[in-house]
Amino acid sequence: MATQPEILTKSFELGYTYTRSTGPLIGRFLTGLRERRIHGVRASDGRVIVPPAEYDPQTAAALDELVPVADTGTVTTWCWVCEPLAHHLLPHPFAFALVRLDGADVPLLHLVDAGDETAMRTGMRVRARWSDDPRGSITDIACFEPV
Amino acid sequence: MSDAREPVTGIEVPINLKYEFTAGAALARFLSSIREGRIVGQRCPGCSSVYVPPRGSCSRCGIATEEEVEVSDRGVIESFTIVHIPLPGNPVKPPFIAANILLDGTDMACLHLVSEVPTERVVVGMRVQAVWKPREEWGYTFENIAWFKPVEGA
Amino acid sequence: MREAAIVGYVQGPQRRYAGAANESELIMPVVGEVMRQTGVTMQDIDFTCSGSCDYLQGAAFAFVEGLSALATVPPIKESHVEMDAAWALYEALLKIWTGDADVCLVYGFGKSSPGELRSVLTLQLDPYYHVPLWPDSVSMAALQARALLDSGAASERDLAEVVARSRVNALANPNAQLKGRPTVEQLLAEPAFVSPLRRHDCAPITDGASAMIVASGDAARRLCARPAWIRGIDHRMETGILGARDLTRSPSARLAAERAGVARGRVDLVELHAPFSHQEIILRRELGLANEVPVNLSGGALAANAMMVAGFDRIGYVAGCILEGKADRGVAHATSGHCLQQNLVAVLEA
Hints:
The structure holds 3 protein chains of 3 kinds. By secondary structure, chain A is mostly beta strands. Helix content of chain A is 8%, strand content 39%. Chain A has one helix at residues 23-34, and strands spanning 9-16, 19-21, 38-42, 48-49, 66-69, 72-81, 94-101, 108-112, 125-130, 141-146. Chain A is globular, with a radius of gyration of 19 Å. The model of chain A has no long low-confidence stretch (mean pLDDT 95).
């Protein structure tokens, strides 16, 4: 081969704008979020899973018993995003965290807007900050914030 | 707080990802040549087939194609279709003729447009030649050839 | 069950940016080289299987373009997994075990440089509950790292020691992307990336491809003086409900290792697919490895991590050591998904 070829590149944006069917259980959970209420589902071993699993993680049985849980909870693990990416929902440094809501046994993944990493610790108490315009999405909880 | 709206049955989760596409070495060579008004393919060292545009490999032999071969901008229609419906994002207005054109000196047809001919006169086997856009409009694209038209007097 | 062995393996250059080369141009040299080394031609190959991820290059069915690198006239029997190519190897083994194939070509390729890998990998997550929040791959791993540190099973110094050892081991690996002799103190002095992880705790972004020939018993003996026999292989997956998992443990890796028979003999070397330093600590514990067993002599995924290839490369590296007579029995591990959700363990013997 004679010479190295030029490197020819072109930017493009790939967009998938699908509407996903929620199915009955996730639909009920998201309808609740739109009303600023959080539900978990009771699993076969009695544990409350938030957000609700459609099928039992142990037995694979279909689950449908929704249980109200609080919008306050405890951080079980977290990380601090020093430099948010374009996709991230907060433009400033924040935490991703697993939050075990009061009344739930299985923690959910969400964001914590704590201002500074020094405000974060495992075991801290947090409360949901609701979106001004809830529309039936996990992002109706805009994020959690320290209590 | 109650809500009179219908229960949620669907969610929109738009996913947008940004990419920097890279043409690939073989295609980059082809595009660099066509920017200069030359059609350059690659010859397989195994079966001697010439591919335009080149993919950098021969799918018959499974080996790299590296020898560059400049070919003619004339060829023959191997198959064609007359498109009557507009395609989203396609600036070409229907009806138009899309054809597989086997350029002289090549062994695999390439897809391009055929124009300057009434649609009912297009036939398989028709000799065609490239109609190049004005030189100042040339870029790294096969669209430097606006379309193919029947070879006059053929 | 029919015997099966790896008779050849070639890894291509591992680079941050492969430049003009597209996916099929990355595949062609490694496929060509592994066929040259083993003396196998396309006519000898009964089944071809590859592993890759279309989202890396942002084109649906992009893996089909990868086939441009192969001779497909006359048509070949072919399959693909949208996973690490370690699972493509597993599919090829199924073909051999069932008697449907004797000689298989397996390859993996990943060119991550065109997109933003951390966000591309978000698409592996639950589309209702997780994707709308855009947790990226590094943040997911950092949640796991924090859980491990909080549990007391590892310290930040332990993580830095994993990185320091990877960098030194990679000095002997000509294909490695990151190598050197950093001290643990130097590493600990680096700032946080996604806390508690530092940049060096995370595998680099890599463009690369690898290929392998795997064959049934008689074919393997014919093709190779010292095949790397696959004596056990198993893969297991955990729930996608992140909160339902104990992130400090990997029961799937433990079970896969048990079923693959890791403990049934001496282990000369282990390659663990740990794209984040803390994951090597988790995996060591689950595989029940003795302290003196060398881990990731190649440098592991922290030295080069072509997506959908790096797990396959762990198997390839162990196979290479056996083929070259440097080891008699080795263990290789591959992972897929976030936080070690899915794990494959293979035991290879001379």
